[in-house]
Design goal:
The complex is a heterodimer of chains A (120) and B (682). Chain A has 120 residues and is an alpha/beta fold. Chain A is 42% helix and 20% strand. A 5-stranded parallel β-sheet of chain A has the order 2-1-3-4-5, sandwiched between helices. Chain A is globular, with a radius of gyration of 13 Å. The mean pLDDT of chain A is 90. By secondary structure, chain B is an alpha+beta fold. In chain B, the strands form 5 sheets. In chain B, strands 13-12-11-16-15-14 form a 6-stranded antiparallel β-sheet. A 5-stranded antiparallel β-sheet of chain B has the order 2-1-5-4-3, with helices on both faces. Classes of the chains: A alpha/beta (120), B alpha+beta (682). The interface between A and B is medium-sized, with 20 and 27 residues.
């Protein structure tokens, strides 16, 4: 059995986190969910792609991307956010994320992002 | 002379002396009687034979205090004159006016009985004394008048043939005025100086004219007529004027003692009856005044006859009933009886208007009819009266004759002056307008409070949207995941079950959030519930959590355990806390170390206290006094009603709200009273 590509999901909102994991699995990937960036960093996972919320207690999604960059991680990052303030969106785009999704988003939009990240 | 010569001549002289009216007594140097005429016998009651040879002063018991003086005078001057008191043979005191002189080695005294004269003189002295006492001491103004000139004027009239003086005086008021002017005041007593003068007696010893107003001239004329007719006195009620023009009612008496008019003098007495007069007038007018008040006061008034019920109350009291309220409860028919036993006997105009009654008569009769909408107010009023109250006051409703319900303030008086309890007086003040205004005001207040809450929700829109979007987004995602699983040739049922379970949970969570917001956004009548302050804080924190998270504010709760409950409206308390917290978050903005602390405690005064403290820039001292004023704001686009509403909510619940000094940031503190244990929820 071939190993499914691992998608790591980081969101402080449990509902959203579990829902995303379920959706990612329904796409045919393996999913691993974390409640905060720090938990992910400690887990030392090797994901094919990272889906992260931007605004979280502790390190934000943008902070996490910067941490990944410092580690020269090649894992593409898809950012999701419920916020619509322009400066947040601009920061997200500038951080080098492959995709920025505004909650709520539909499954096809996420799938398109995963394709863009060359995972799907 | 009489006593000279021998026995024969003595006898002749004695005979002669017996003809003399005066007592003539001769005594020797030792004081023994040697001669005693017939008048002496008459005066002293001792016969000549009894008297001769007796010591004179012992015989007649001449008063000792006189003796020394007499003897000294006789020795020095050979003569003495004066009155002595002696006693007769019948032991009757007589006052004798004596003339004593030395005569031929002995003494002769002549004496006449002046007892009657002395008695008259004493009486006169006493009378004068009494008169002068009375003149000064009685509460009567006495005037001694000289009307000699008036007497002359009247005599001229009589001589000129005027027969009817009264008619003449009536026809000639100028003549009367002249008589008054001619009447001189000789003396007045102290009271007169106070009553009609102004402290100076001399000033008053002049013409009578200033005191006699024209309206009282006929009284002067009548008293002159009375004097001329020889009547002993004349008295009437009249009005006099004081020297400085004050007119008052007096009781005037003129006395004409027989010898006084002869001397041209007249005594008049004046009694000030203004006070009496006023009292009498007051009595006469008080009933009238009461009627006037009753009928024209701009307050509806109802006079009640409670005599029948008063009797029943007496009986109940005698039977040991103390609490009429309890008696009403245990005797269901009693109130109806009582309300029909009290009868309206009179109503005023305003009452007729208030009840929109066709006529006064429509309002009289048993009170039960008028108080049909009173609820338990009349019952309570009766119980108050039964318990001995003299007054009862409550708001109630009445139904007017044209079918409207009006709010009135009902005030029942049970004045003692009206007798034990037979009559009662009730006032009705129409307060419909006030009640309506109050209702409108509380409506406005409720709307304002609501507006403030909605405005606060508006400030939380972003986090509310976020809060709602989270579960909705999850539901959407779950649904799409489920659809994808279902599209697979072999659906993973385990995965589908998990998705469905989560979808339900998320939908529930969304519904909870909506309900919380709706609680704040909708407007209901304020509740009065027993609430745990800490519980309210925790609810608000749930609500504020997304905003705190969004703003990156650390929330610290420091809630005292085991606090007693308070009472009030949950939503309004949430509003106060949320408002303070939102203000705090906004004040902190993007500053570092953003922290919101909410504390609860029981303060030293036994009040529940909550504090909302931030780490923002603090309160500008210049704004402190106006913080809670309506429409005061430092926020762009702020309405300035948040804190004002907070204050009105807190104060309406019996608490206080203040800004508290803290080293850094701002701290708002409000208190709420502890719910009393004996009050259950209403």
């Amino acid at each position: 059995m071939t190993r499914l590509p691992l998608i790591c999901i980081i969101d402080d909102d449990e509902s959203m986190r579990l829902a995303l994991a379920g959706l990612v699995r329904s796409f045919g990937f393996a999913a691993q969910a974390f409640g905060c960036a720090e938990d992910f960093m400690r887990a030392d996972a090797a994901p094919a792609c990272i889906i992260t919320d931007i605004q979280m207690p502790g390190l934000s999604g943008i902070g996490l991307k910067q941490w990944l960059d410092r580690r020269s991680s090649a894992a593409p990052v898809i950012m999701i956010t419920a916020r619509s303030e322009p400066h947040v969106l601009a920061q997200a785009r500038a951080s080098g994320a492959v995709c920025l999704l505004k909650k709520p988003f539909d499954a096809d939009a996420l799938l398109a992002c995963l394709k863009k990240a060359k995972v799907a | 002379m009489f006593f000279a010569g021998g026995a024969g001549s003595i006898g002749a002289v004695s005979d002669l002396l017996d003809l003399v009216q005066e007592s003539v007594v001769r005594h020797d140097a030792d004081g023994r009687v040697t001669g005693w005429n017939a008048a002496s016998q008459t005066l002293y009651g001792h016969s000549r034979s009894d008297a001769v040879g007796q010591p004179l002063h012992e015989l007649l018991k001449t008063r000792r205090e006189s003796l020394a003086g007499i003897e000294a005078a006789l020795r020095a001057h050979g003569a003495w004159e004066g009155d002595v008191v002696r006693r007769t043979a019948a032991d009757v005191a007589v006052t004798v006016r004596l003339k004593c002189f030395r005569h031929e080695g002995g003494f002769v005294e002549t004496g006449i009985d002046v007892s009657a004269q002395r008695r008259a003189e004493d009486a006169m002295t006493r009378a004068e004394h009494r008169y002068s006492n009375v003149f000064q001491a009685m509460a009567v103004s006495f005037w001694e008048l000289d009307f000699t000139p008036v007497g002359a004027m009247v005599q001229r009239l009589v001589r000129a043939g005027v027969a009817d003086l009264g008619a003449y005086f009536d026809a000639h008021p100028d003549f009367v005025r002249r008589m008054i002017r001619a009447t001189r005041v000789i003396d007045v007593n102290d009271l007169s100086i106070g009553l009609l003068g102004r402290g100076d007696k001399q000033e008053m010893l002049a013409s009578l004219e200033p005191y006699w107003p024209e309206e009282s001239q006929h009284v002067y004329a009548q008293s002159v007529v009375a004097a001329v007719q020889g009547r002993p006195h004349f008295a009437t009620e009249t009005r006099l004027t004081s020297i400085d023009g004050r007119v008052f009612d007096v009781w005037f008496t003129a006395c004409f003692p027989p010898q006084m008019p002869a001397r041209g003098k007249l005594l008049i007495g004046i009694i000030d009856i203004s006070a009496d007069k006023k009292a009498k007038t007051a009595l006469e007018t008080s009933e009238q005044r009461y009627r006037m008040l009753f009928h024209f006061l701009p307050v509806a008034m109802v006079q009640l006859d409670r005599s029948e019920l008063a009797g029943v109350f007496e009986t109940l009291r005698a039977e040991g009933v103390r609490d009429l309220k309890a008696y009403f409860d245990s005797h269901p028919g009693f109130y109806d009886y009582a309300a029909n036993a009290i009868r309206v006997v009179e109503v005023n105009r305003r009452a007729v208007e208030l009840f929109a009654a066709p006529d006064e008569a429509d309002l009289t009769g048993p009170v039960a009819r008028l108080w049909s909408e009173a609820g338990d107010v009349i019952r309570r009023s009766m119980a108050a009266r039964f318990a001995g109250a003299s007054r009862f006051e409550a708001e109630m409703k009445i139904r007017t004759f044209d079918g409207h319900i009006r709010d009135v303030l009902y005030v029942a008086y049970f004045p003692e002056a009206f007798g034990r309890s037979a009559l009662g007086l009730s006032c009705l003040v129409d307060v419909s307008d006030r009640v309506a205004a109050q209702a409108a005001l509380s409506q406005v207040q409720a709307e304002f409070t609501h507006a403030a809450r909605v405005s606060m929700l508006g400030e939380l829109t972003a986090s509310i949207a976020h809060e709602v979007n989270q579960p909705l987004g999850a539901i959407l995602t779950n649904g799409e995941a489920a659809l994808r699983w279902l599209q697979r040739p072999e659906p993973d049922l385990e995965e589908l079950r998990a998705l469905s379970t989560r979808t339900v949970a998320d939908a529930r969570r969304a519904a909870d959030i909506i309900r919380r917001i709706r609680g704040l956004a909708t407007r209901g009548a304020p509740e009065d519930a027993t609430l745990a302050l800490n519980g309210v804080v925790e609810e608000v924190m749930l609500f504020l959590q997304p905003e705190l998270r969004r703003r990156g504010v650390e929330a610290v709760l420091d809630l005292a355990p085991g606090l007693p409950d308070t009472r009030g409206d949950r939503v309004q308390f949430q509003q106060v806390l949320a408002n303070l917290a939102v203000n705090a978050m906004q004040a902190m903005g993007e500053r570092d170390g953003r922290r919101l602390t909410i504390r609860t405690a029981l303060d030293a005064d036994g009040m529940l206290a909550a504090e909302v403290e931030d780490t923002g820039p603090g309160i500008d001292p210049g704004h402190r006094d106006r913080l809670f004023d309506s429409f005061f704001t430092t926020k762009d686009g702020g309405m300035g009603i948040g804190l004002a509403i907070c204050r009105s909510i807190v104060e309406a619940h019996g608490g206080r709200i203040d800004a508290v000094d803290v080293p850094h940031g701002a701290c708002f503190r409000f208190t709420l009273p502890v719910a009393r244990a004996d009050r259950g929820p209403r």
